[in-house]
Write the structure tokens for this entry.
Amino acid sequence: MTATCIYMDNAATTPVDPRVAAVMVECLTADGCFANPSSTGHAPGNAARARVEKARAQVAALIGTEPAAIVWTSGATESDNLAILGVARAQRERGRHLVTARTEHKAVLDPCKQLEKEGFEVTYLKPGADGIVQPDAVAAALRKDTLLVSLMQANNEIGVIQDVGAVGKICRDRGVLLHVDAAQSTGKVHIDVNEQCIDLMSLTAHKTYGPKGVGALYVRRHPRPLMQPLIFGGGQEWGLRSGTLPTHQIVGMGMAYEIAGREHASESARLSALRLRLWAGLKQLGDVELNGHPTQRVAGLLNVSFAGVEGESLLYALPQLAVSTGSACTSASHEASYVLRALGRSDQLAQSSLRFSLGRFSTESDVDYAIGAVTEAVRRLRRLAPASVPG
Amino acid sequence: MTATCIYMDNAATTPVDPRVAAVMVECLTADGCFANPSSTGHAPGNAARARVEKARAQVAALIGTEPAAIVWTSGATESDNLAILGVARAQRERGRHLVTARTEHKAVLDPCKQLEKEGFEVTYLKPGADGIVQPDAVAAALRKDTLLVSLMQANNEIGVIQDVGAVGKICRDRGVLLHVDAAQSTGKVHIDVNEQCIDLMSLTAHKTYGPKGVGALYVRRHPRPLMQPLIFGGGQEWGLRSGTLPTHQIVGMGMAYEIAGREHASESARLSALRLRLWAGLKQLGDVELNGHPTQRVAGLLNVSFAGVEGESLLYALPQLAVSTGSACTSASHEASYVLRALGRSDQLAQSSLRFSLGRFSTESDVDYAIGAVTEAVRRLRRLAPASVPG
Amino acid sequence: MQSLSYSPLVERYFGHPMSVGPWPPDAGPTAVGDAGREDLGTRVRFELHSDGGVVTGARFQAFGCPHTIAAAAWLAEHLPGRTLESANSMPILELGRLLDVPTEKLGRLLVVEDALHAAIENAGLIRKTGPQLNAEQAQGT
Amino acid sequence: MQSLSYSPLVERYFGHPMSVGPWPPDAGPTAVGDAGREDLGTRVRFELHSDGGVVTGARFQAFGCPHTIAAAAWLAEHLPGRTLESANSMPILELGRLLDVPTEKLGRLLVVEDALHAAIENAGLIRKTGPQLNAEQAQGT
Ligand SMILES: Cc1ncc(COP(=O)(O)O)c(C=O)c1O
Ligand SMILES: Cc1ncc(COP(=O)(O)O)c(C=O)c1O
């Protein structure tokens, strides 16, 4: 069913690495390590607990921290919500102002909108045309009552990398907490939460060849920010996140992050070369534009606007290529990507963009196929379109 | 490591059924159905979406509803929180009172406690000595400003079954919403949310031979109760629960529930017989008491108090048997199970109880082993203990 | 939670539209009708030939979603042989149903209809005033 | 998030305690010391024999967690040969460290200590007043 389709949507989700799948499978059935990691009254429970703690150490190692700073969640959406709602609701007497950027993921923007309903003010910074939020702009937005800055490290649509370390130093100096959404950056960008002065970091497994439905929140320990949980219950994860720990999921995330740490350098080099090859091929079409900063970006992600074609039709004309459009293609409206709009792209260019996200299993022949298929589809749709008429 | 241990802690978590593991594994790696179910712009995404929707129908079928009433979550803890906090926060202008029972899971009690901090009042009903909450007691607790009653169907510690249908009719008549925690009852007790007048029902996969880390909330559709999400973001699940849908987890839950529906009757008969055999064996020890109603209970769960032995030592003396104690054995305190205390058990008996929870993979020889091992351990510990002295 | 799925008819008319593109300059008097804007996601053009009030040839161009393109292609294929009058009252919403166009997208079909109506109006003008007008129209003023 | 793990010493003294149970009635004058309550989770009893101020035999009984049982068992094994005085000042918290008793459980060791001190006190009384008292004690008044 999907066999004839070339997958270039690794920013939406990655397949699970076979090495990760192997350890997950060990934690499912009756002959495996399936017990509840909180059942520390018996041997199977302790075995599960040990694997969970090993995974905690693996995840901690990738971001340069200690295991006790890692809180398991169901993914980056939950982690973003826990960080933002959790800090704001617990510290509302300290301040009611947050700073973030217009190009953040909805998992950051939507909790911010919720906080506005709860009496907070949020500053949404506009990035430059290259997608970069200048650290100075963050500094300028800080107020006396600013509690938290939330800034993603790598953008999911255009792949640009923010200088979170510079922002971290500014925030630390001013006594403001920094939350970083690193869903798209683990295994792709250097992370060291201490060096980068990060207080909270959202992580997810499924963009880094781990399973969907598991993630983590890094919470700095010294000092530990005061937070209100989203989910109350058994008291797991130091009371910050109750619920039975999903051993197989956590073990998968740990292994995925260990591999990511080990293979980051070689993988990035390979993916950079593939991306440049793809861009070189697509540029031949003419009237195409690269979205986002040309070099301050993750290796595998390329977002291109094609003048003169409509996004949904372009996607439909590429049935063998799994990519995503800049437009919110699952919604009924012609709404253009808010990220590309924030960069100043016209509605039309924002709407007719494609995001190609290469991954661990992408090959040179995939890239060549994509160049050919996109070239043909764009040419055909451009021929179908009427010549422009003045306004 | 765990091979020599007999697992009788299926109420804590069950192993994944091999038939469930098989479909999960199909949704992990690059050659499988791994894509993001929200990526409906391409074939792999649509294939994942189709499997997610099939699973939604499988889950809906087990509880007698339509697929569109099922919202995926990360488990029953999240579902309980979403139901209770979600309704209360969204409808706080309609009323500020909730009713629940003292024997509920922490995933219900803790959000209730949180609501008390947010200005709500909660009535915690005390069950009878048999663990049953009388529907009349619920009726008597309802007030004009009662928003919601939350009552579990099967209790996780003692296995007693509440008559949620009778409570449902009372609530429906009085215009009060009923939330039912069914984490321990799927595949074990008859569920029909329409017939039983249930508005919200928490479900989880991992007590019914599905994977840990995935669950669902049934939300009645006509009328649909007003709710505030816990987690804001991409807008998945009708905006009630954002976050990437974990295809393999959801597919696993669907298959687990389908099997549960099909095998419920035969499995219950088999487990009842095993439980009665276990109880008959343990009774020989003398000075043992069954906790909870003798017949209004799930088939596989047996909770027994052993006079004259201490719980943690009893557990420690049974290294080859994975059971759990009534005491909060993972905490440092000697705190006795709040469930058994609510039934009126003395601290000592509450503290020295064992929960045996048999499951799909339990055998007669497991039961016989347990009888032998527990008999020996209890006798040894009783011999170690000093004869009682007055006061 | 809605997926990009298209009916077989859309697949056919999007994938293999006939009657595409402008008429060659020497094809005779052409009535052109334009509607929509690229920056709003939909732009459609029809070019009609007619003789004695009957459509003799129709071509389309479209910038838009697959449903838009398919609808325009379907119309261009089915216009020839109709009187301008009957062409003018072709029931666009029924075409929408035929192509399984989702309700939220029906607005785009109105753009297709607007372009068709504009072309038919111009065809009527050509009939009355001769082809001079057409030359102007074809330049896209 | 803390697991039920026990040090090898606990394992040994819980799993194979020697010096268990009451002395037989004909074993001579026995000094008994009780402490704790079952409903609070810990109850310990020591029964000592002594001669000229030196412990000659010690037995224990315990209702409690593995650490409690192991601590009582360890003491019962290590008391013989000590003077009552040195037995009275055996450093219970150091025993706790030896057995890796978690901090939160140290309170339970104090129950063990109380039982020991009570037994030693009774042994002192026996020494002064003769075995009559012991008979009474052994009946557990
Ligand atoms: C930048 C970013 N943040 C958050 C998320 C949400 O993560 P999850 O799918 O783990 O909930 C995603 C991906 O969906 C993302 O790309
Ligand atoms: C009755 C009951 N409710 C809720 C839960 C929590 O479910 P989950 O582990 O899926 O978060 C459990 C089990 O842990 C349970 O037994």
The longest helix of chain D spans residues 106-129.
